Amino acid sequence: xxxxxxxxxxxxxxxxxxxxxxxxxxxxxxxxxxxxxxxxxxxxxxxxxxxxxxxxxxxxxxxxxxxxxxxxxxxxxxxxxxxxxxxxxxxxxxxxxxxxxxxxxxxxxxxxxxxxxxxxxxxxxxxxxxxxxxxxxxxxxxxxxxxxxxxxxxxxxxxxxxxxxxxxxxxxxxxxxxxxxxxxxxxxxxxxxxxxxxxxxxxxxxxxxxxxxxxxxxxxxxxxxxxxxxxxxxxxxxxxxxxxxxxxxxxxxxxxxxxxxxxxxxxxxxx
Length: 271
Prior knowledge:
The chain is an alpha+beta fold. It has helices at 2-6, 22-32, 51-62, 95-105, 118-123, 135-146, 173-192, 200-217, 230-243, 251-254, 259-268; strands at 37-38, 46-47, 66-75, 78-83, 88-91, 114-117, 149-161.
């Protein structure tokens, strides 16, 4: 409210009458937004002072639907890790580039470190789901499947805070079952609109990671003794095989010969 009073031409503070979730809060922001471009910043994160300027310059220069940049994680005064990407332009009307893009972006669940054209979001009616975690997964995947252009800035311009007491550090399988639910919701939308056609192999990988591997990864917690939940495992496996009966033959998945991946593939062999 202080910033709004200080910069009334630049900042609009919207106070909700009751507490709402992240998805609904962002939808309210989208409804109020009158600018040409949209960006999201999580409340406890930071960003390079020039991040929005650099994203805007690419968006305006190439008339993009989306742009993104690298990021770095930090805790207190310590930089933990930097994620620097390859600087490039994606022409998403070209099928092979679209396939690369899906594989590159499909497992990135965050909407921060990105900029979106407001008209693009409005045209495709892209909003966040309400009352769920992993709402970013739903929003971002619908964006990447419908965008026609994207530019990746290599620099890590967004600063993601690792909060030891935050919800992301205290998650369990039930929290990440929302990853399963949101991935199913995305694929329902894609099928309803025929957007999956021609990209089934790539989308199978994304579904495998988001709706199978990710929940399983957090299902067994060594610190508190939680073991595999066989009922949840059956739901995850059956849904994956129903959506993608040939998932065991997927060339992208089979190319990962790590023991980590082999462990999850073994779960698919269970009766």
